[in-house]
Every structure is written in structure tokens, then in C-alpha cells.
Amino acid sequence: MTTLEPVKVGICGLGTVGGGTFNVLTRNADDIARRAGRPIVIQQVAARRDNPACDLAGINVTNDIFEVVRNPDIDVVVELIGGYDTARELVLEAISNGKHVVTANKALIAVHGNEIFQAAAEKGVMVAFEAAVAGGIPVIKSLREGLGGNRIQWLAGIINGTGNYILTHMRDEGRDFNDVLAEAQALGYAEADPTFDVEGIDAAHKLTILASIAYGVPLQFEKAYTEGISRITSEDIEQADNLGYVIKHLGISCRTDEGIELRVHPTLIPKQRLLANVHGVKNAIEIMGDAVGPTLYYGAGAGAEPTASAVVADLLDVARDMVTEHKYRTPYLAFSGIIEQSDQAPQVLPMENIVTAYYLRLMAVDRPGVLARVATILSEQGISIEALTQKEATEGELVPIIMLTHRTRESSMNEAIRQLESLADVAGSVTRIRVENLDDNA
Amino acid sequence: MTTLEPVKVGICGLGTVGGGTFNVLTRNADDIARRAGRPIVIQQVAARRDNPACDLAGINVTNDIFEVVRNPDIDVVVELIGGYDTARELVLEAISNGKHVVTANKALIAVHGNEIFQAAAEKGVMVAFEAAVAGGIPVIKSLREGLGGNRIQWLAGIINGTGNYILTHMRDEGRDFNDVLAEAQALGYAEADPTFDVEGIDAAHKLTILASIAYGVPLQFEKAYTEGISRITSEDIEQADNLGYVIKHLGISCRTDEGIELRVHPTLIPKQRLLANVHGVKNAIEIMGDAVGPTLYYGAGAGAEPTASAVVADLLDVARDMVTEHKYRTPYLAFSGIIEQSDQAPQVLPMENIVTAYYLRLMAVDRPGVLARVATILSEQGISIEALTQKEATEGELVPIIMLTHRTRESSMNEAIRQLESLADVAGSVTRIRVENLDDNA
């Protein structure tokens, strides 16, 4: 069957994803060779320590990752060490040595991707990163190739499993954020320092990558708006439920006439939407194209073998395209000439300029005229109210007022909230959660 | 930017999908050229009549589809005429003339695919058919490339929009099959002769294609089991709802030690599953891989531009790979050497040999001992009951007995039903609907 030379792979890093990749490549080697038309063999592995899940008998193992990128017998370097600086140095040296690169490193691509793609283009090598976004879900391939006939209008995704695990359990069990976070940490779903996940940085890395591929613009992680879920209360989850919504931590990118929205924040989603029904550590991304309409991609966003699944898919692409002239390959960010023409690309919108609907919750003294004052402030900012509920209370007591607004500009909402918080009748700060109201009916 | 020669396309058929393809290629031409690195131009269109949705000014139009496949200026023939015989002849002649082929024709691929791929392999040309399954959802690409590292274990999908539209409205509005079918016909969602859609033939075509790609076996449409939705009653939908299930028309293919299951039939799905929440004309396919676990792909399964989205994605693949040697291209059915080695491939299981859980509804006279007789028959066939409900009634009246069984072999269930229907206490025939109980937790 197989008549072509094997593709020789060097794996840098043998942690969770490295171990998974090693095992999938080994276990499914025969099927993979039948798919690629040639074997994909592990030529060398660089690891600082053993991974007990992997049987390394007969494998060339080094503890120096740079040995792999300098190994003349290696065609493709698989970077699975994570982090920024060393990974950047490793990948750039691999490229400089003419090797193709496969990486699962979202931080590296989101932050150093423009530089890496520029270097790779000059050397004519591939850099593949399906595993960097949403683990095993083939969303990069779907967006970059499968939807290639479309002008992408927006995308919205649950792209951090830790955050979704926490929100799912807060909702199902009526528990508090800190309580569920502690459980997630005990189960290994959250890191000891959970900032990266729960504050939305990890999701913003992934969103940055998706948006660049969707619209053909350079990576601009530094312009992403990021808001975490640590201030979401079980009260807000319950109120959202009463209104027919579920709160999810979404990454949203929308192409508007003014520019590109790039934002990660807690979001109310109508219950009947598929995204609202994605639970636990699972990920899902909804993508709207002008021809196809809404599509959705769901699966495991992390974990050893789900992520390995994406790494191996990239290796299959490399195996097929390594003989192809570079100009015929799919561009890294879907469109050719992105970085060279970045001055002509649409700009990322400042958060003040986005337009969305809002959920607001404020605690007000239940006395005559309060609602009128609240409504006047919103009205003066051009914000119209879609729904309002106020619990009954004894006059003079604090009572929550819950509102859903129609779409308005964030800057108007900021000003309205400033004024609401300065009202004598309003206690504490106003809770504001954006509502996902992207058009699902193209 | 663009330095490569344009790719010259001939479109055969300018109906719904042909018109959509023409319009998407025209409207998004600049973006498509930036993606492909070269323009994709419509060199000729063959149509028996005008499509008022298309502006054909300046286009070379013929009414002879065979002129397109003989046109020496055309690189890629896009077959959008549908049907079996003429489409087969057209595609085989295009291949014989050394042209690549893109088709949306599921019937053609499911029935004549083995012959077509064999001919194309001999000529070294591509035959792409993303649009043949689930319209705009890039599920062929995801299964064949994105999940290429996996051993696929099963897949299950809502792959006929007409059937899903009917079942959705039957459930939401408590209406009967014939009533909703008439409405779907009036709205253009169902054909005047709905057999192809509601009896599952269209879904079986698509399932056949998906299964071949999933497991690397030849296309075997003639071995697919097909059961339609025309006998589903609103009573069964309501009973399923009470038990926590939704009835969907699923195509299911599962790889077992004994062979490959290939079956289309109404199916009970637990309400919380994403597949149960796919409504109206939308499609979704869940795919289980050994590395990635469950993944799901959702979107529009039909319509002019959703299907065009898939056709254009295939054209982009052809544009990139037409310079590549054939042996480096992704095999038509994911694995190389499938048709040549078909004697070694796993066989499609006869329906009698599948193993699944069941929902049963029977009308029995409410008299002492009936339940015991029913339970004895099931027990003697080795079938265990998971749940049983019997409505209260006056003794001697007919009353429905509803049961959910654990997994059992179809042949045992056939025998049990034969015996149940021969009981004097049981009136009429036993309704049997299979329950989707594929493992979602790999």
C-alpha cells in the first residue's frame, strides 16, 4: 500500500498533550499511514521527565528540546511545551532550520503568531495549530477551509472548558463560584492559579486566533476585551433562568461596518440555543457565514487525546502538503497577504463602541419614583428596556430590579450605569451582563 | 497578490444549488481568490432554463451539459443536475477528459461512487462531494481530515431536513404526520412525492457516504436498512416526551466486532443530548472518535447557498491540490486502497444482528395476567425491561402499555414482537421505535 517515504516527527514536550499525541500516533499508526499514504513515525521525543502513560521503549529520547529542532532527520517539529518565550525560540529555530511546525500553543500563536507566520512564509514551511483552539474540535479547518466560500459575519464560542464547568455546576446545583472552583481544582479541571481560565485570558487567546482566520486580519490579542466569570453570582444565574436565559462565558467576534468586535465576557444566551446546552468541560463554537448561515462545532476542548486528535490531523495535513509548493498551500490565517497588508485590514473596535443588549441588576430602595428615575436615566442615554422585573418588598427596603435592554452602544451603557450608581436610591454597584443577540437567522 | 493562473470552472445545472453556487462564486470572488491564491472563474454554465436569481450577463451559457465536460478550457466540472444516470454519464465523461469533479449529488455518490472513484483514481483527478452530505456543514472534511487521527467508533445524524421539520412540528404542536407533511409541502420544504425524504432513502444515501469515510470501506448503499417516519404518531411523541426522550429520524452507523451497522430509522434520543435539540430543517451529525471522544457538527443541511458553501469549499480544495501529485491527495473515502481491498473490509451487518434498546407500545386488554404474559415473552427472548407504564383503565378495556427495554439483539426483538402480536390480549400491531444509546462518554 504505502509507497512514499515516512514523515519523521520530533515531539517536544511529553506532558498531557505530548503523551496523548505519542499514544495516538502509536496506537493508530496503521490507520494513519493508510490515510496519509505514508507512515508518520516518531523520530525523537524531547522530555524533561518520563510520562508514565507512554511506553518509550525503542524511542530516541532526549531532555534537550533544541536537539529536536536541530535534528537533520526530522521533518516536522511538534511543539507541546506550552508557554511563550522558550516555545517562541524553539519554533523560530525549527522554522529557520526548514522544519514544519505543529503546535497546540494558543498563547504562542495569539501573541507571537504574526512573527512566526512571517518567518515561516519566508522559509516556505507550514505552521499548523488546529490544537490551539478548542482541543479536538476541527474548528480551524472548518473555518479556514470548510467555510472558505463564505464571508464570515460573526462567531461566538464556549472556548474554555474550566469556565464552562464552573458555570454549569453553579447553575445545576445553585452553588457559588468559589465553591465550584474549589471542586474543579480538586478534580484537576482548574489550575491552582485559575486566573488564566476564569478571567478569560485563555479564551481571548483562542478568540484572537479564530477572528484572524475568520476575517483575514493580523492577530491582535492585545486589543481583545477580557472579562472573567468570578463575579457571576448564583442570583444572576437564577434571574437569567427566570427570563429564559443561561449564562455562559463566551468569546464573541463580530464584523461590523465600524470594525471587528473581539470580546470575552459572561453572556446571557436564550435557553433554546444549542450553545446554551453545551455543558461541563465541553466546548462549542457557532460560526455565521453569509452563504451557509449558522453552523456549530462541538466537542472536547482540552485533554490529552482530544488535543492529540487535532495535532495528528495537522500532521496528516503536513504529510500531504509538504511536497506542495508553498504558494499552493492554505494560508496560515486563511487569506494570503494578511500581514503585509495589515494597514488595510479592518480595525478591532474599542469596547466602548460595541453594540449589544444587556441584563442589568441593581438593588434599589423600594419607594415611589425610583423606577421612574431609573427609566429616565436609561431613556436619556437612548437605551430602551425590553423587560423589567421588580420583586415585591416592604416600602423602604432594598429590592432587586432586573432589566433586559434592547441593543445599545457600550459607551451609552457605561454612562447610564455611572448615573444609576450615583442615585441615592441605588445601593452598591450595578451588575451588567451582556446578552448574546447575534442574528441566528441569516 | 494573485500570481497564479485562474481555475476555470464549468457549472452543470442552474437550479437551486447551481444558482446558489453561481451567486456565491460571483459575490465572494475577491475573498475566494485571496483564499485560493488564485481566482476561481466561471468559464461556462450549462442550464436548460434561466434561473431568475442569477445574473448571467457576460457568461458563456449552453443548454448542453456535455459541452461543459468536453470544453478544453475547463479545469473543474461542477455537477449540480442531480439524479443517477445522466449525472453518472456526465461525471464519468468529465473524468475521462481529465477534469476534476465537484458534485452535490448524494444519490450519485452513494450508488455509483465506487465506480466513479475507481475511474477518477485511474485518471488521477479529484472528485469532491462535501455538498452531498448535510449541505453546508463541513462534515466530510471534518471526518476525513479533521478527525484523521482517530479510529471512528460511531456516528449518528439528523441528515434529512424535511423529516426533521415534520417531527419538530409534530412535537411542538401535537399535530399528526399527514397534517405537518401537507404544510411542509406548501412551504416548499417537502416534495410533492415525499417518499425520498420521509422514508429515509435520502438519509441512507448520506449515511452510506459518511460510513465509508468513517471506516474506510466501499460504499454499500444497497445494504443500508431504511425505515421512515410516516408511521410515527403524536401519541408516541408524547409518550417519548414523558419518558424524557425526543423522537428524531437518525442515520446511525456503528463499528462493532461483528461488522458495521448502517441504519436509518426513527429513534428516541434523551432530551438533554444536543442532537435532541436540533430543530426544524437543520441537520447535525455526532461523531465519536477513539481519541477525540464525541464531536458534533450542526448547520443548514440544504438550500441554495448553504449547499453552495460546500461546493465552493470543494473548489478551493481542488484549486490548491490540482497541482499536487495524485498520491499525495486525501483519498476519496479517507483511506487509500479501499476498493481494491474491499474483500478485507468489515461487512455491513444485517439488521437482525444489530444490538440496541427499544421503545415498545402495545394496546392490551386490561385484565389480570396480561402484564405477566407480556413480561414472560420478553424474558424468554432475553430482553430486560428498563421502564414500563400502563395507563389506568376500566377492566376489560384496551389500554396502552409502554415499555423501554435494555439493549438486545434485533432478531430477539422481532421474535418477541411476533409472539406479543399473537397474544389474544394484544390488539393490533406492536409499535417499536429504537432508542439511541450510543456511548457519549468516551
Description:
Two copies of one chain form a homodimer. By secondary structure, the first copy, chain A, is an alpha/beta fold. Chain A folds into three domains: 7-136 and 305-344, 3-Layer(aba) Sandwich (Rossmann fold), CATH 3.40.50; 139-300, Dihydrodipicolinate Reductase, domain 2, CATH 3.30.360; 355-435, Alpha-Beta Plaits (2-Layer Sandwich). Chain A is 36% helix and 25% strand. Chain A has helices at residues 16-27, 29-36, 65-70, 85-96, 106-123, 139-146, 161-173, 177-187, 195-198, 201-215, 234-242, 304-321, 370-380, 410-422, and strands at residues 7-12, 40-46, 61-62, 76-79, 100-103, 127-128, 152-158, 225-226, 245-255, 260-270, 282-289, 293-300, 355-365, 385-390, 398-405, 408-409, 426-435. In chain A, the strands form two sheets. In chain A, strands 7, 8, 9, 10, 11, 12, 13, 14, 15, 16 and 17 form an eleven-stranded mixed β-sheet that branches. In chain A, strands 3-2-1-4-5-6 form a six-stranded parallel β-sheet, with helices on both faces. In chain A, helix 1 crosses helix 12 (304-321), helix 7 packs across helix 8 (177-187) and helix 13 runs antiparallel to helix 14 (410-422). The longest helix of chain A has 18 residues, at 106-123. At the A-B interface, helix 1, helix 2, helix 6, strand 12 and helix 12 of A face helix 1, helix 2, helix 6, strand 12 and helix 12 of B.
